[in-house]
């Protein structure tokens, strides 16, 4: 980054609300040749007290973004609008439809500056006709106006964020498909990294996905200005993944507040839960500082940007297959399991809803479909395979003769077992998980999710992929077949014992391996064993040696394996 001239970038700001932020101080350091130092300064709030410095750094970051060849700049805005410092009447510049009713946050701007945000957004709509859904744009534009010399400079900054074409990097969702798949991806991340908060949402909200659909608004819109500005520092440096981190941190702090309040967990309309979270975020400064929020956000050990991108793409594909590419009334996912149509001899409709809240969001959109049950199809492993092959994923439920209930979500088609002939070889992905329903409800995920140090994300080069541990069964290479959290070939695993998900031959099926089997079931589907395994780091799911009273396998309607 190079040095730039300092200009007055505070003309839109209501300085009476800005506390100890300096308007007139010299910009200080704005040249960063070391990316590590830049990240450290962004995360630590190095620019928070110096308006000129933050403005200069932002302009450098935005000008450094690789963009499409034809990207509208400040001159284009001046040609369209004219004098870019005159007062604007917001009503003269209606907000574009693509903001989906999102209001412009005040963010310590002068009252008349809101009209400037409207004018910029109106011009953006004219220059970017392909944008169909971008509710985050009003708060992003309002924030950037803070550090802009005039509307034209703000317009150019927003344009560069929208036109960024760096491979693998995105800054703003610009279609409903991208936005909705990001909401689903956030839900998946909550499952993995905020299990206590997710449990709270399932217990209190009638539609969990509806609650999670607000995640971007929490970060860009509801957070007070001092928090939003700090988020913007790291967002411009590190990209979209920062938004996920901050939203996860917000949810963790919200759950902590609920636990401290000792509120009874009662199911209520999702709108009430959404309103409660929004109020918490808007007043977060009463209990959390910006430093604490970012510290929490960056303490979450997320997988790589590549992993999250693959998850986003998988969710997009799921939505496309269901024809959900434009905004419409979303199906209530909590009601995807209809009590009138669901009939299991092992779990109730309420219990299957609880299980449904654990599975990846793209499959939670599907109805359960009974594929196999020992009460109808008999106790035969061959019949088990014949009824389950061709379906991906599947859900296995087991009730023992002692009345204990456990099971597994299995990410991969059982037909994959044939790759090893009759040799017992493991396959599957890190989306598999185990659970028990009785005597108490508990889920056990892939050990790498809670301990990322066990696996380092591999680079997506052919050389590195072929360098995957030879002891692992290599999954399908078709990108559409991949499920994130992910295939073993995407990780440099220290031990094969941490990636032994599922296996089967004519003699038995095994789920979870490594110094023990989480579930072993014999060829007659009659006798089983359960013990701790390294892949899931689980305790025994029921009595260590058990007799099977009933076994069911459920598929996901409209989610058959290709």
In short:
By secondary structure, this protein is of the alpha+beta class.
Major sheet description? 11 strands, antiparallel
Give the C-alpha Rg.
26 Å
**Whole-number tally of structural domains:** 2
Distance between the termini: 48 Å
Shape: elongated
What is the share of helical residues? 25-40%
User: What kind of oligomer do you see?
Assistant: single chain
Overall pLDDT score = 84
Q: How many strand units?
A: 13
> Unreliable runs, pLDDT <50, ≥5 residues?
1-6, 328-335, 457-494
Structural class: alpha+beta
Q: What fraction of the residues are assigned to beta strands by DSSP?
A: 5-15%
Number of helices: 21
Give an overview in words:
- The protein is of the alpha+beta class and 562 residues long.
- The chain has 21 helices and 13 strands.
- The strands form two sheets. Strands 1, 2, 3, 4, 5, 6, 9, 10, 11, 12 and 13 form an eleven-stranded antiparallel β-sheet that branches.
- Helix 1 (35-44) runs antiparallel to helix 11, helix 4 crosses helix 5 and helix 5 packs across helix 6.
């Amino acid at each position: 980054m190079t040095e730039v001239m300092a200009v007055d970038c505070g003309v839109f700001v209501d300085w009476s609300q800005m506390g100890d932020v300096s308007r007139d101080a010299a910009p200080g350091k704005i040249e960063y040749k070391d990316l590590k130092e830049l990240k450290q300064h962004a995360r630590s709030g190095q620019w928070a007290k110096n308006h000129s410095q933050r403005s200069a750094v932002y302009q450098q970051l935005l000008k450094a973004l690789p963009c499409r060849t034809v990207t509208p700049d400040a001159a284009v805005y001046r040609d369209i609008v004219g004098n870019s410092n005159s007062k604007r009447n917001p009503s003269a510049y209606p907000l574009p439809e693509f903001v989906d009713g999102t209001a412009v946050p005040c963010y310590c701007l002068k009252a008349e500056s809101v009209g400037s945000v409207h004018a910029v957004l109106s011009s953006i709509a004219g220059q970017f006709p392909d944008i169909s859904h971008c509710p985050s744009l009003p708060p992003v534009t309002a924030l950037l106006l803070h550090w802009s010399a005039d509307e034209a400079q703000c317009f150019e900054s927003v344009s560069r964020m929208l036109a960024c074409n760096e491979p693998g990097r995105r800054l703003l969702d610009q279609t409903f498909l991208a936005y909705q798949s990001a909401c689903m991806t956030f839900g998946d991340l909550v499952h993995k990294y905020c299990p206590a908060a997710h449990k709270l949402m399932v217990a209190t909200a009638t539609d969990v996905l509806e609650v999670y659909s607000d995640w971007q608004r929490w970060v860009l819109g509801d957070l007070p200005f001092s928090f939003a500005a700090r988020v913007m520092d790291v967002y411009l440096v590190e990209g979209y993944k920062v938004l996920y981190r901050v939203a996860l941190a917000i949810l963790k702090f919200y759950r902590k507040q609920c636990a401290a309040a000792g509120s009874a967990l009662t199911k209520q309309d999702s709108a009430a839960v959404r309103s409660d979270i929004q109020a918490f975020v808007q007043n977060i400064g009463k209990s959390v500082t910006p430093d604490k929020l970012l510290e929490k956000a960056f303490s979450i050990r997320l997988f790589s940007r590549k992993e999250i991108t693959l998850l986003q793409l998988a969710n997009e594909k799921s939505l496309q297959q269901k024809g959900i590419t434009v905004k419409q009334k979303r199906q209530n996912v909590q009601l995807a399991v209809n009590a009138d149509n669901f009939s299991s001899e092992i779990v109730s409709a309420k219990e299957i809803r609880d299980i449904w809240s654990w599975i990846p969001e793209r499959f939670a959109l599907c109805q359960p479909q009974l594929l196999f049950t020992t009460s109808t199809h008999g106790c035969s492993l061959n019949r088990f395979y014949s009824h389950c092959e061709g379906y991906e994923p599947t859900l296995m439920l087991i009730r023992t003769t002692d009345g204990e209930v456990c099971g597994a979500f299995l990410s991969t088609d059982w037909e994959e077992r044939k790759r090893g002939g009759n040799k017992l070889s493991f396959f599957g992905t890190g989306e598999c998980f185990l659970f028990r329903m009785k005597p108490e409800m508990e889920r056990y995920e892939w050990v790498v999710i809670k301990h990322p140090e066990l696996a380092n994300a591999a680079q997506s080069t052919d050389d590195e992929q072929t360098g995957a541990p030879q002891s692992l069964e290599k999954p399908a290479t078709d990108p559409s077949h991949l499920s994130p959290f992910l295939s073993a070939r995407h990780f440099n695993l220290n031990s094969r014992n941490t990636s032994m998900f599922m296996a089967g031959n004519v003699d038995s099926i095994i789920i979870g391996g490594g110094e023990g089997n989480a579930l072993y079931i014999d060829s007659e589907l009659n006798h089983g064993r359960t013990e701790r395994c390294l892949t899931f780091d689980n305790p025994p799911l029921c009595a260590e040696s058990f007799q099977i009273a009933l076994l069911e396998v459920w598929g996901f309607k409209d989610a058959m394996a290709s």
